[in-house]
């Protein structure tokens, strides 16, 4: 049981770090006045990844509450 808790904590830390990095990347693109079509697609993809990561964080927290 303790190993599962440790693994969940480690995965949560990874997901939170990933979410923070994705948020920074999205913010960087959002600060630009004009985006190329490739940058627009990248921004959409980053936002989808960010949302999926946030969902994974929520699911993990629900599965292993404090």
Description:
With 66 residues, this protein is mainly α. The protein has one domain (2-63). It is 85% helix and 0% strand. It is elongated and about 50 Å long.
Q: How many domains is the backbone divided into?
A: 1
Following the backbone from N to C, one meets helices and strands in this order, namely HH
Shape: elongated
Sketch the major β-sheet: none
Low-confidence regions:
none
Topology:
Elements: H1 2-30, H2 37-63
Helix pairs in contact: 1-2
Short structural description:
Helix content is 85%, strand content 0%. The chain is an all-alpha fold and 66 residues long.
List keywords for this structure.
2 helices, 0% strand, 66 residues, 85% helix, single chain, mainly alpha
């Amino acid at each position: 049981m303790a190993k599962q808790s440790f693994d969940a904590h480690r995965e949560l830390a990874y997901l939170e770090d990933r979410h923070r990095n994705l948020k920074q990347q999205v913010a960087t693109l959002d600060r630009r006045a004009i985006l190329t079509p490739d940058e627009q697609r990248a921004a959409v993809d980053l936002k989808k990844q960010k949302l999926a990561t946030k969902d994974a964080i929520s699911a993990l927290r629900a599965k292993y509450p404090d």
